[in-house]
Amino acid sequence: APSSRTAFTHLAMGALGGCAPPGGCDLAALRAALRSAGVTALVIPSEDPHQSEYSCGAHARREYVTGFTGTAGVAAVTLDKAALSTDGRYFLQASMQLDTSQWQLLRFGEPNVPTIGEWLCEQLSPGDRVGIDPELHSAESAENLRKELEAAGIELALLDSNPVDEVWGAKRPPMPDAQLRVHAERFAGLGVAQKLDKVRSEMAKEKAEVLLLSTLDEVAWIFNLRGDDVPHNPVAYAYGLIGKGFARLFVDAGKVTEEVSAHLAAAGVEVHPYGECAAQLKMCVGEGQRPWVDAATGSAGMMAAAEQGAKQQSAEQEVTEGREAGADASGGGGACGTEGEPRAKKPRRAVGSAVLTKRSPVITLKSHKNDVELAGMRACHLRDGAALCRFFAWLEGAVARGEELDECSVSDRLEQERQALDGFITTSFDTIAGDGPNGAIVHYRAHKATCRKLKAGDVFLLDSGGQYEDGTTDVTRTVFLGDGEPSDHVRRCFTLVLKGHIALDTLVFPEGTPGFAIDAFARHALWRAGLNYLHGTGHGVGAALNVHEGPQSISPRWNNKSGIEAGMICSNEPGYYEEGAFGIRIENLVSVQVAKTPCQFGGKPYLCFEKLTFVPLQAKLIDVTLLTKDEADWVDAYQARVKAKLEPLLGGGVGGDSAAKAWLVASTAPLDRSPGVGSRSATAGGPAPPKA
Q1: C-alpha to C-alpha distance for 9 and 678, rounded to whole angstroms
Q2: Chain centroid, CA 322 distance in Å
């Protein structure tokens, strides 16, 4: 699915305990809290202290304040105005959820639309103070905002307490307390000690002596642990500190079972209270250990702790050097050794350079899946594909029988199919089941009170996934419901999306190529028809971890220059969306493999994609006349592989397998390439795009 999701609903989100529909919290009360804090504005990000894309209810402050439930966006409230900035994935949703009498929607990336920092500079005057909670902003984003405001004469204030929490009060949900579980080495592929060795090797290269692990999936990966604190993401609220001779996990003690305790002890990992990480980081740095704090994921609060430790160490070193200089002057000989050699002084680091701020090595190590992890991902995708076959066979029959179905009931049915599978833990995100016009809302989520009924003749978009012991899945299929035929326009749009999907799937490219350099291959066919989509084409995926991970992505956003490398897993998911009509997306997960090329220019390996997802594509949505022979061959070959891989697995399930097998066989038949097949009219629904 696209690289951000939402729980989209017109109703209050019960988990937020006081979020009003639409419009958010009492802004008058929040503004009173700002005055008490001595600031003229407050910036409210989406993130929690770990810079998570998905958070628990206790950290959903931006959602509580604005009423907007998308996972991406930042809000700002001044003493008389309020604004929310979000990107193109959420323009429609935000316009429906915000109370526009109180909130201004800033459509990020659109011409002449200010960023949240620029908006604040427009609204405020020199001498004003903008407050932030330093635990919720990355060190990098806080510093960028500080510079932007400072240029306008505005001060950035790091607050000791969050005014939103003051207003939220007793209605704020409690922090989650789910217990940790061990992620067995037979799924992880490496033990904790092996992973620590790899990390310490990377630290040694950078001359770093203590590493902060801040993101929740980093902590889960390094310690081979999984949790249940964030819906759909098998992680727990925790930090890690890694040093030359120690490894520490900071987590609430109630989450540590006897099994987890023994697992950590066997690897030499100490367990400390969650709230002590900043103090221990400061202490380590104060003792002279050079810290590594990823500025993009470590909070401004954690960075401040590291810098305070560095200042403390520098001050103590000055005192020590002063004493030694005094001893030398008094003839104590302290500056020389026993042979009269001058005593070597420890080099003093400037505080600003004392903290290494580059990307955490765990983020990169985690993205390169080992052979065991890749085997688990392949296996769980096949089980997942079989569940989807059972589901689509049931759906097709239910629609044909005229059963009353809605977006919620079909989502529930799909989850039942997955629950019957070996190793299933939970869904990997809230299922996006968008019928008709709801499919055009990129991050739609159905709610029982407002969901749409499915009916024959609709285009239905289904984006779903599962978390398993051995892997994580994420797959989107778009189908036309009923026995009728889709319009030429719908078929054309689907086929253009399919052409983009095939173009990316078959691409061969040099190792280290950043995702923005290959994104256009997935859009080329749409662009030639004057069409596009406003989300990224691909995101990284964890192995039995978060469904979205970095550092890689495939997107037109050029600022992510992370290269794509062998062992990574990405999604391939171009789409097309017509507001008020339908949405189309085709998504497979792929692993990055070394391609067998006749040459390797410059000695650099070339890469290709290996398909992980095997679920049939609906042939009636494909306009064969728009496909080249190679593209049509790709479709037939893919469908044949789907049938070969899934047919042996159809033995059980909620709905029985005879119907599922019959559906699979019919759905994977070769394309009909007879002349005239695939499009009733060359011009209906708009001009046909030029053929590739």
Answers
A1: 37
A2: 51
Give the CATH H-level superfamily of domain 368-667.
Creatinase/methionine aminopeptidase superfamily (3.90.230.10)
Give one word for 378, left, alpha or beta, with left for phi > 0 and alpha for psi -120 to 50.
Answer: alpha
Distance in angstroms (rounded) separating the CA atoms of residues 1 and 443 = 9
386, 646 contact by CB (below 8 A): yes
CATH of 14-171, one of 2.40.160.120, 1.20.1250.20, 3.30.43.10, 3.40.350.10: 3.40.350.10
Say whether 250 sits in a helix, a strand or coil: strand
Q: pLDDT tens-digit profile of 539-566?
A: 999 999 999 999 999 999 888 899 999 9
A 10 A CB-CB count for 487 gives: 17
Whole-number Å distance between alpha carbons of 480 and 621: 7
Instruction: Give per-residue pLDDT as tens, 625-653.
Output: 999 999 999 999 999 999 999 999 997 55
Q: What is the largest CA-CA distance in the chain?
A: 102
CB 360 within 8 A of CB 551: no
Classify 402 in phi/psi space as left (phi over 0), alpha (psi -120 to 50) or beta.
left
621-654 b/e with 16+ CB inside 10 Å = b? bbbbbbbeeebbebbeebbeebbebbbebbeebe
pLDDT tens for residues 489-503? 999 999 999 999 999
Query: What's the Cα-to-Cα distance from 577 to each of 179, 242, 396, rounded to whole Å?
Result: 41, 46, 23
pTM score of the predicted model: 0.88
Residue 570: in which H helix or E strand, if any? Answer: strand 569-572
For domain 181-300+357-364, is the CATH number 3.20.20.100?
no
Beta partners for 75? Answer: 44, 84
